[in-house]
Each structure stands twice: as C-alpha cells, then as structure tokens.
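Record 1 of the preview.
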Amino acid sequence: ALTPDLKGAPVWADKIIDQYVTRSDIAGAFSLWAHTQPDDSTIGQVGIRNENFDGKSNPPFGWKLYTGPAGTAKISNDGLQITHSGASGAIFVRQLLTLPPGRHSLSFDTGNGAEKATNLVWRIDCLESGQTILELPLASLYSFEDQGADSFVVPPQGCPGQWVALAGRALEIPETRSLEIKRVSIDREPTR
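->
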C-alpha cells in the first residue's frame, strides 16, 4: 500500500489527529502524525520530542504552547520562556507521549527564574483515565545546579498514551513570574 506524503499537511490532518486522540486511538494518531512531520528525525523517539524546545515536531506528539489571560509560553533560542500571572491556573505547554509501562524518570534544566516558580509543576497524566502519575513542582527541587528530577511509573494497563504538561497554579497573592526552561527529558529506568 502507498503511504501518502503529508509533510506540511493542511489543517484537516490536525483535526483528524485530534479526533484519534479524543477516541484514545494513540496508534492511529501517531501514524497519521508521523506522516505529517516536516522533520522526521524525532519520529522514532520514545519519550519527549524536542527536549531542548527546538520546535522540530508538531503537536500533539510535539510541544503545543498555550497563551491566555494566565500567561504566555514561547520558544526562543534559550529554550522555553514562561510568564505566569499567578491569578489563575493554566497549562502552558503539553505533549502527548507513548511511554511503555514501567518506571521512568523526568528531568529538567532551568535558567532564570526557577527559584521563584513555586506555582509551576510538571505533570504527567494518563490520557484515557486522567490518572496523574507524576506531579513535580519546579521550585521544590530547585538547586544551585538549576536541575530537578523525579521518577514515576506508567501502569501496565489503561495508560497507552500520556500527557506531559507544564502547569501553573493560582497563587493566593497573584504575582507575575517568569521562568526559562532549557531542557526536559524522560528516560526509562533500568528494571531492578
């Protein structure tokens, strides 16, 4: 069978991919998504694509950035730039993953502003069930090395797709805060 070359695909392809995701048909969504990528170097990766926020893959299996009243997310030469007003909660970036069951670890490197990011968390939720399998606050792991990490387990059933997202929580006293994230990655941990 011929496989269509949909690189630079029109908007309708994104809508079909979204329908697959809504139905939790991760394999169907990924198959169509892979044919629409202008740069196919990230297609075979398991884990986060564009871990340095270089913009090589399109959503949902690449980063989707959100901007609204709660703040902004944008990619620059220095990585991911987040500005959060603290007035309300919001998701700033997210990406759909296809991690296999088992233990994994999420790690990240930050730049300016991490010590003040007390309301920002990395979350990983199962697509089908909505179960949160990781919630990692940025500020609680802030160190002089500007790094953080934590491990989590993808359950053996009911979690073939996962959303990884950087989310902001509302602050009691809203205050605009900015943060730079240079890298985020997920690696499979060896079995013990």
